[in-house]
Amino acid sequence: MIQALAFYLFAALVIGSGLLTITARNPVHSVLWLILAFFNAAGLMLLVGAEFIAMLLVIVYVGAVAVLFLFVVMMLDIDFAELRAGFARYALFGLAIAIVLVSEMIIAAGAWSAGSLELAQRIAPTPNDMPNIQAVGGLLYTRYLYLFEAAGFVLLVAMIGAIVLTHRARSGVRPQNISEQVKRRPQDAVRNINQPSGQGVEL
Amino acid sequence: MVDLSQYLPILLFLGVALVLSSIFVFAPMAVARLTGAHKPDAEKLSEYECGFPAFEDSRSQFDVRFYLVAILFIIFDLEAAFLFPWAVSLKEIGWAGWGAMMIFLAELGLGLVYAWKKGALEWE
């Protein structure tokens, strides 16, 4: 009973915030609605028993991806008049994506109504006596070991790619050099002089 | 299988938070309207920035280095996400799983060394 209530609450909030994501005029508001949608999707994942996925949604999507979206949105120099002028140019492209998504939904609904899945026939049925995260780990690091290592390489390539694309050496800046700064003695920096009165100071 | 009843306190907490936050948002608005203090004018509704008029549009471009930091954060975040199931199931996956994670960590350690040597973590 409470479970059903929670499901309807989360599902309604996901749909509502999804709608507001695409209808909000301000892109920053749009991203904030998207974050709310992620939170509620995490709640839905929790209800179907995928605890680990739910926590990952909160940590990775809300904590990192959505914040990055916010960065991008704030970084873009958005001119609203220009944005509206571009609408007609992208309308055809957007329409194509919309058609693809709608047909995917229709196919998914058709597959759903064609009959239920034989859950017992899966390669790795969910064990009843262990928590979700342990089952994921038991599969990921044995059967899907190579895919896991490939994921590591993808992350490495992403890191190096981001550095190569966005990092450039700047000239004329004074970066911190911790060891130099710590090693500096008072006698290197301070000079005592006996200043006679009536004469200018020589620097 | 997950025992969902463990999450009931969190759900209750969410409900309380929702109710309290909506009270804090809507009660002042209702009170302002009921007591007759709700008299907006152009000056009251304009944005307020430490007593100055806002200098410029807030949508200015900022440095791409923030983006680099954010990307590096996401990558190490994902790496940490892989560590959780590994740590929990270490007993079943044996030495092969342990070695795989060490290789994975070495790859990302290599990335960290690269970022460090390139000066991508520097901020002047």
Automatic annotation (TrEMBL), chain A:
- Recorded catalytic activity of this chain's protein: a quinone + NADH + 5 H(+)(in) = a quinol + NAD(+) + 4 H(+)(out)
Pfam families given in the database record: Oxidored_q3 (PF00499)
Record's compositionally biased regions (Polar residues): 192-203
Asked if Transmembrane is a keyword of the record, the answer is yes
Q: Which GO terms describe its molecular function?
A: NADH dehydrogenase (ubiquinone) activity; quinone binding
Taxonomic lineage is: Bacteria, Pseudomonadati, Pseudomonadota, Alphaproteobacteria, Sphingomonadales
Stated name of the protein: NADH-quinone oxidoreductase subunit J
Subcellular location, record wording: Cell membrane
Task: State the function annotated in the UniProt record.
Answer: NDH-1 shuttles electrons from NADH, via FMN and iron-sulfur (Fe-S) centers, to quinones in the respiratory chain. Couples the redox reaction to proton translocation (for every two electrons transferred, four hydrogen ions are translocated across the cytoplasmic membrane), and thus conserves the redox energy in a proton gradient.
Keywords attached to this entry = Cell membrane, Membrane, NAD, Quinone, Transmembrane, Transmembrane helix
The record's region (Disordered) falls at 176-203
* Family designation: Belongs to the complex I subunit 6 family.
User: What InterPro entries would the database entry show?
Assistant: NADH_UbQ/plastoQ_OxRdtase_su6 (IPR001457), Nuo/plastoQ_OxRdtase_6_NuoJ (IPR042106)
The organism is Sphingobium boeckii
TrEMBL record, chain B:
**Regions that span the bilayer:** 6-31, 66-87, 93-116
GO terms for molecular function, please?
NADH dehydrogenase (quinone) (non-electrogenic) activity; NADH dehydrogenase (ubiquinone) activity; quinone binding
Instruction: List UniProt keywords, sorted A-Z.
Output: Cell membrane, Membrane, NAD, Quinone, Translocase, Transmembrane, Transmembrane helix, Transport, Ubiquinone
- Role: NDH-1 shuttles electrons from NADH, via FMN and iron-sulfur (Fe-S) centers, to quinones in the respiratory chain. The immediate electron acceptor for the enzyme in this species is believed to be ubiquinone. Couples the redox reaction to proton translocation (for every two electrons transferred, four hydrogen ions are translocated across the cytoplasmic membrane), and thus conserves the redox energy in a proton gradient.
User: How does the annotation summarize its subunit structure?
Assistant: NDH-1 is composed of 14 different subunits. Subunits NuoA, H, J, K, L, M, N constitute the membrane sector of the complex.
Name of the protein this chain belongs to:
NADH-quinone oxidoreductase subunit A
The keyword Transmembrane appears for this protein = yes
GO CC annotations on file: NADH dehydrogenase complex; plasma membrane
InterPro entries in alphabetical order: NAD(P)H_OxRDtase_bac/plastid (IPR023043), NADH_UbQ/plastoQ_OxRdtase_su3 (IPR000440), NDAH_ubi_oxred_su3_sf (IPR038430)
Intracellular or extracellular location(s): Cell membrane; Membrane
- EC no. given is 7.1.1.-
Q: Which family does it belong to?
A: Belongs to the complex I subunit 3 family.
Q: Under which main EC class is this enzyme filed?
A: translocase
* Gene symbol of the encoding locus: nuoA
Q: What is catalyzed by this enzyme?
A: a quinone + NADH + 5 H(+)(in) = a quinol + NAD(+) + 4 H(+)(out)
Q: Which Pfam families match?
A: Oxidored_q4
Indicate how the chain sits in the lipid bilayer. Multi-pass membrane protein
Going by the entry's taxonomy, the superkingdom of the source organism is recorded as Bacteria
